[in-house]
Amino acid sequence: MVPDAIARPESLEELQAVLKEASSSGKPITPAGAQTSTTAASITGHGVLVSTRGLGRILDIDRSQLTMRVECGALLGDVKRAAAAEGMLFPPDPTSENESTIGGAIACNASGARSLRYGATRGHIRALKVALASGELLELKRTVLEKNTVGYALAHDPVDWFIGSEGTLGVVVEAELALVPMPAEVTGIAFPFATEEAAVNFILAARESRVVTPQCIEYFDLLAVTIAKSADERVGWASEAAAMVYVEQETAEDDAVLDRWIELGEQFTAGSDVRVFQGDAELRLARRIRHAVPSIMNERGSAYRATGGRKVSTDWAVPYRRFGAALGIAREVAERHGIEQPVIYGHAGNGHPHQNFLARDEAELAAIDRVIEETLHRIIEMGGTVAAEHGIGKLKRKWLPLQMSAVQIGVMRAVKRELDPLGIMAPGNIL
Fold this sequence. Notes:
The chain is an alpha+beta fold. It folds into 3 domains: 5-182, Uridine Diphospho-n-acetylenolpyruvylglucosamine Reductase, domain 3; 186-278, 2-Layer Sandwich (Alpha-Beta Plaits), CATH 3.30.70; 303-390, Alpha-Beta Plaits (2-Layer Sandwich). Helices cover 34% and strands 20% of the residues. It contains 13 helices and 17 strands. The protein has helices at residues 12-25, 76-85, 102-108, 115-118, 159-162, 196-208, 222-229, 257-267, 280-302, 323-336, 362-381, 400-403, 406-419; strands at 5-7, 29-32, 48-51, 58-62, 67-71, 88-89, 125-131, 137-141, 171-178, 180-181, 186-193, 216-220, 243-250, 275-278, 310-313, 343-347, 352-359. A 7-stranded antiparallel sheet has the order 14-11-13-12-16-17-15, with helices on both faces. It has a 5-stranded antiparallel sheet with strand order 4-5-9-7-8. Strands 1-3-2 form a 3-stranded parallel sheet, with helices on one face. Helix 7 (222-229) crosses helix 9 (280-302) and helix 10 (323-336) runs antiparallel to helix 11. The longest helix is centred in the C-terminal third of the chain and has 23 residues, at 280-302. It is globular, with a radius of gyration of 22 Å. 45% of the residues are buried.
């Protein structure tokens, strides 16, 4: 899809001028950061695509208040490195952090592996500047009240209206981020398991343990383990693993924490080839091994573009105690439809895996779509969600009614009408 026009404002004033002109002429506006969305939220075939990359400054860092002010087009990786240079951490860590913008992370409420401990982007936003479709600028700060009975709760904190709104309500132009002190030391541990059942039971025990406190619990099925190991220099490592679980925990001034993890793994027959990652270089290697899975699956999917195929990714989630049951259901649905089993990996500590299917042509793409929809019906029955971290965008809009009632969707439409009365902001996203 190709838009009618592309705007690349380099100042707030230029952005407001673009919005005012579009509002007066009724042209649709689709905001875009670095376009790493997996739901087509930042792609459009009509109207004006507004690139925010020209608004990419890191404005200031306040060490005493643990805050940072940034423009929307700053790359998330640059934001995190700037914070680290001051001994602080911006916790959200999506896989695409070196290719995605902070504005995009806010628009999708991005998360990542460490969301088990730190939560998604929403909890780390203190204030926003948002340009509405009319060009009007809203400056919003979170309340610090502990008690408030004024009006409907959904109206108490307007900052939350825009986090996860995927460009449909306005353009986030600046954000004040809440940082945390950089952990003094983090240890990563990869546990190989001979069966998926043992891995799932270990995940549940780690999540509910009182002796270990993980900041992430990541799962890899057999197919994902095979891909992940291709990025590791240790040839032959965990050669008999049918599944793997990777965890991280802060370990400064706690010499016994590694022993506690090893003991927990042994309770669930973790393989003897447990891998420990300590120090910045090894933790970067662990991250590279984990990120090899989506990266290689993207490459494999691209090979089928010419025949109408591609990689198809899900990001559903269930209450974490139902993670194992949900995996079984997802596998059964794919098998019954005659679809090749997907690569499954991801944030098991939050009950949130990714399924990566490969569609070789349009017929397989349609069949996979049917598999995903049937799976999502079952996921909703388990108290789950159709989208845990990637948003709805355009591709998943058809599944919104599986999870939300007509009343809930009606309330969202009312908010949309109030903030974007002409309906020109990111048409096709969410609603």
